[in-house]
Design a protein that fits this description.
This is HTH-like domain-containing protein. It is built from 5 helices and no strands. By secondary structure, it is mainly α. The protein has 2 domains: about 30 residues; about 45 residues, no CATH class. α3 crosses α4. The radius of gyration is 18 Å and the shape is elongated. The termini are far apart.
Length: about 90
């Protein structure tokens, strides 16, 4: 097994960043339910709904959605979440 310091040096990653990411990865995803709802709406319309229509549909279903929530869930800020089929 390699010592952590050597691996961090090889990856050019600060030790504090390593531990921060490790801790963040162990936390549950607070947007998991929203992501599932968005994916269900997106898939049920065969990928033809953009973020505006998905947001409108969520609001019609009684979900409170802000632009910050939508950004985290649809991938405009963090990871890619929804992609058009094809």
């Amino acid at each position: 097994m390699h010592p952590l310091e050597g691996l961090l040096e090889l990856a050019k990653l600060p030790r504090s960043t390593f531990y921060y990411r490790q801790k963040a990865a162990s936390r549950p995803d607070r947007h998991a339910a929203l992501k599932e709802a968005i994916k269900a709406i997106f898939d049920s319309h065969k990928g033809r709904y953009g973020y505006r229509r998905v947001t409108a549909q969520l609001r019609r279903l009684g979900r409170r959605v802000t632009s910050q929530d939508r950004g985290c869930a649809d991938g405009t800020r963090k990871e890619p979440f929804l992609r058009r089929p094809g």
